[in-house]
Structures are given as C-alpha cells and as structure tokens.
Please model this.
Amino acid sequence: MWQMEDFLNVSSPPDSPIEDLMAAVRAQDIVVDVVDGEYNRSTEKYRGAIEVSRGQKGYSFHIFGNTRAHNVLPALVNIISNAFLKMSKSADVIRVWNDPLIHDDKNEEYSMQIAMILIYTMFSASLSPHFAMSSISDTMIKARCQLRLSGLFSSAYWIGQGLVDITFYCLLLYLLTALSSSRIVSAALEYNTGCNSGSVQDK
Model:
C-alpha cells in the first residue's frame, strides 16, 4: 500500500467541490497535492494522479500513473475505493495487492525442509544396522565367556541389551517422525501462504 512518503496529485476543475473526497483520501495516510485544472502529464514528481470532477450524477475520475512506479494503477483504484468507503462511514478497508512480482524464498525454504526430512529418514534407517553390528561385535569379543566367568547369565545380558536397544531405537524413530511431520506441515503452510498473498483481502 502507499505510505506517508508517497505523493499523489489530484486535479479538479475550480467549480467542483471535492473537499469530502480529499478528506477521505488524506485519511489513508497519503500526501495529497490538490491543484486546479488538468494534470500535467509530463511531470514525474508524483507516483500517480487522479483527475476528479463532480457533477449531478456524482464523481468522475481519470487516473494517471508514473511509468517508473510499479503497479500504480491498481493502487489508485484502491485509493478511490477506500475513499468512498470512508465517505459512507464504513469501517471496512479494501486491500488490493499492488506489489511488483519479486522472487521470494518460500520455494527455497520448502526445498530445505524436504532435504532435512530426507536426512532424518536416512539417519533413522541406519540405526537398526548399528544396533545389530554392536551385538555382533559383542559376539566377536566372546562376551558370553566373559559373562560366564563373571557369574552372569548370557540370556539376561542379551535380553537386557535388546530391550534397551529396541526402546532407544523406537524413541529416536518417534522423535524423528514427529519432527519431520511438523516440518512438512509448517513448510506446506508457509508455501500456501506465499501463493495466496496476492489475493484481495477485506479487513
């Protein structure tokens, strides 16, 4: 939307009273320069201009946009629409998307989220072989003989190790799945928000 530093030129015939319209335009925090007569199209001082005349059937408008300003014509139409809303004592505001098409990082963020999910998936898939190899390493160092020498049952050791490994593996898998799901949902919401940012919103 137009901010305080944006300047708007409004031209009108001397015999056309447009004070109420100008008050409604200024209420939108827009600096307005009102002149009598036709708009000088050769000037580049203003971002846009509106020629206003008031007759028996109401207002008549001609809008002019600076060629160096982006999407100024939708902004001018939006200003006129909001001015009529304010003149009718309405609290609603029409917001028209008038920003230029620029590159955003929504797609890049979405791709990064997918890459992180793939990394988590590969990491979780490598946990089970890691636990299996740890048991094989225990077998290679003859842990059963050491347990017998210590007076411990080998079955109790293997069952205890299995319970610890399985519980730890399931916990890590659950945490990775929950984290990946939250990232997918947040990335999808951000992507949809970015795609819908150009729609017209009513406040």
Remarks:
- Residues 129 and 135 are 10 Å apart (CA to CA).
- Residues 106-197 form one domain.
- The chain has two domains: 7-95, 106-197.
- The first strand starts at residue 7 and ends at 12.
